Amino acid sequence: MAKYSIDLQAGKVKEDEAVNSVGEIIVGIDLGTTNSLVARVKDGRAVAVAGEDGKQVLVPSIVHFRPDGSVVVGEAAKPYLTTAPERTIYSVKRLLGKSFGDLSDVKDQFGYRIIDEDEDRLVKIAVPGSDGRQRYYSPVELSARILQALKARVEAEIGSPVSRAVITVPAYFNDAQRQATRDAGKLAGLDVLRIVNEPTASSLAYGIGLTEEDEGRTIAVYDLGGGTFDVSILRIEQGIFEVLATNGDTFLGGDDFDQAIVSYWQENYGLPLSTTQERGEIRLLAERAKKALSQEQTFTAEFRGTSVSLTRAEANDRFAPLIERTLSSCVRALADAKLEKGDIDHVIMVGGSTRVPLVKEQVSAFFEKEVNDTLDPDQVVALGAAIQADVLAGNQQDVLLLDITPLSLGIETVGGLMDPIIPRNSKVPTKVGRKYTTSVDGQVRLKVAVYQGERDMVADNRKLGEFILNDIPPMPAGIPQIEIHFYLDADGILRVKATEHRSGTEQSVTIKSQYGISEEEMALMLIDSLNHAEEDMRARSLAEAKTEANNVLLSARKFIRQNESWLSGEQVQEIGRFVDALAASVAGDDKDAINERMAELNTYTTPLAHEALDRNVAAAMRGRDVN
Ligand code: AMP
């Protein structure tokens, strides 16, 4: 299961750690299905940024193309939903990262045309231009238009350019959808520092997850918007939000509440609803009634000559089955997370429809606790994104570290040993380099195998990937200078680069899914490493002894070859015996035996090595004499 802070997408590695430059404004953006908004931390508080009127913070996620191709975004685009639906794109979030095949069930529900030229490719939206020709837009381009509008809005407020943002996505978004969101940001001129799960942002907005007290807390985020319902169960573990389960209904929200009211009125008043215009108007009136009933007990209005009314009790009757459906999702999410209601420490209300009093009551009754509903439910996600952005900007030094690597990352070294390069619990982003060399003469290739885990032998850890550094110039063992760098970015993407300094040969690999590991697996790996600590130590010293012995064997054999001319037959045989004995011990698992055989071989060969040195020196001197 993915961690909140994690994005499994390939991305730029932030080697410069610029995210930490204190004082820079990084904004938080909630790119929503119905509405989007941008927020920032101002004077230590997260606030949503309003438009020109200074009041309206929600930007409807609507993009309208005028016949000449120019674009209108947000509130100004809204009227075109009815007057020019084929050129007015809404709910584009539902299309992000989707292929036509993914959308075959729902494609006819949109007022605009989604094209189907290729089942497997990402969809495009066809918009007719004034010349009768179609223009094609991808959901990424359309989302970028919304992001641009938000960017412009915040820039107008602060009077300087904004180039960096944190953008939220639903917890269930897959890699393609997250990447599409990131791409939309880039297209809008924003460096997306982090893709954050919406429920995680909501928790942060309520300050949950910002202090150590929240360690081990479990949170339910109930998000009922205009058209969708999501419930997410999160747990904070070591400062990281883990999504334990998500559930929901992609076609259940405030719109259904409106429809329920329309149905009630139709049944009671037999309203004339034959034209699109009439149906549109009554829906708007129903929404007005719903909102009014969140404050009042009764609502009365006139619809085309008929007086219509509705009480809160009547509305509640119609809303109850819809709310019941959301609670069924909560039951499923709890079951998936293997939790009971009583395990939930906090319930957070998100989305405009949680303003309906019956929703609050029912959710509170279901979880048997007070819900967090003091923040504006439309703004919670963006406010949380702004807090996350502020943490990234380095402005909240005292907050609990949100980004750490849960397990060590390292490479395999000779003997199958794990050499941890980025130790577990390191802060990210981070960059670590370490020097290595070859173990065999003339070695021209080096395999760099990357592992994650706490055990001493790589065989007990999890392999993340490997690559080969080729074209190392042939040199004696130990001479090449190979530097291996690990770059771990804020999104958990690991890039490993190996460079041979003498030749400049370079090779790298990017590993995207180092967090593609569940909390349980991770816990098991840690427990495993503790349980096996002693055994691991033995294995490590055995592996080290074997590596050293193999080097000694290589040198001994080389020594015989190079000094055969003067060594006596007996000496050669004797060395051979020690070499065989050592080789035999290397084949076994007795570290002490290996060390003893090594010592015996050394004791026997040391005087011979001195003699060889003397002879070489003498030979060199003679050579000089001759010259
Ligand atoms: P969202 O997608 O989160 O922006 O949610 C918008 C939904 O919230 C729409 O269905 C709105 O009708 C609904 N909504 C907004 N304000 C209220 C309110 N005061 N009472 C009930 N529903 C509301």
Short description:
The chain is α+β, with helices and mostly antiparallel strands. The chain is built from 14 helices and 26 strands. Helix 6 packs antiparallel against helix 8 and helix 11 packs across helix 12.
Structure description:
The chain is of the alpha+beta class. It folds into four domains: 3-10 and 405-520, Substrate Binding Domain Of DNAk, Chain A, domain 1 (Sandwich); 21-197, 2-Layer Sandwich (Nucleotidyltransferase, domain 5), CATH 3.30.420; 214-373, 2-Layer Sandwich (Nucleotidyltransferase, domain 5); 535-621, Substrate Binding Domain Of Dnak, Chain:A, Domain 2. The protein is 37% helix and 24% strand. It has helices spanning 80-83, 100-103, 139-158, 175-187, 198-205, 254-269, 276-293, 312-336, 357-367, 380-392, 519-531, 533-563, 569-587, 591-626; strands at 27-30, 35-42, 45-48, 59-60, 63-65, 71-73, 88-89, 113-115, 124-128, 134-137, 164-169, 191-197, 218-224, 229-237, 240-249, 298-303, 306-311, 346-350, 409-413, 417-422, 430-436, 446-452, 462-469, 482-488, 494-500, 505-511. Strands 1, 2, 3, 4, 11 and 12 form a six-stranded mixed beta sheet that branches. The longest helix has 36 residues, at 591-626. The chain starts with 26 loop residues before the first strand and ends with a helix. Mean pLDDT is 86; it is low at 1-22. Bound molecules: adenosine monophosphate. Adenosine monophosphate is lined by residues 32, 34-35, 225-226, 253-255, 287, 290-291, 294, 351-353, 355-356, 378.
